[in-house]
Amino acid sequence: MSNSFYIFVESLRNTYQAGGVVMLPILLSGVVGFYFLYSGWMRIGSDFFRRDINKVVNRMSQDLNSGAEKAEQRLRKRGGLLSRELRYALDVAMETPEVFRDYMQVRIMKTIRYMEQGNHIVSVMAAAAPLLGLLGTVTGMVSTFNVITLYGNQNPVLMADGISEALISTQSGLLVAFPLTLLKQRLDERIDTLRQNMELGATVIENHYGI
Length: 211
Description:
Order of helices and strands: HHHHHHHH
Largest sheet: none
């Protein structure tokens, strides 16, 4: 087990060295991108993985017919960002209905901004990684042509370093950008779903209390 791990680490080290100088910025772009992506998941919490998001408002609407306490209990039991925001909305609607609309407009806007913090950095890193890989391709090919100029093209071993740098850097940039792009799209979709449900929940509460 330890021997296999050592071989794996050694392979990664050799790949990193063969990729040339652009491997460090590619690696950093991946670390930064995945850090902010993970932060976005943590801000959303359990609602990022749940499949019942679109059913929460319907259940709340049904519970309101039996009283706000039942609706609050179910929302508190469920947990998650959406349930928390809907509970706050219910409290405002019952205590100060005259400010409910203004409250919800501001609250939804702040919640969306909270969920979207740092998401633009993920997009930047996802776009930067393949460009850095392309830069590595250029530097690798320049290195290869310099070798050809000095020694000719009769010895492929001398050209191997430049070709390896070009290919590995391109591959590394794509390996960073591809998952970042897919996961960022998933995060954006979940944020949009939560926004729609918060707006729908606010409308249900507003109609129920005749605000």
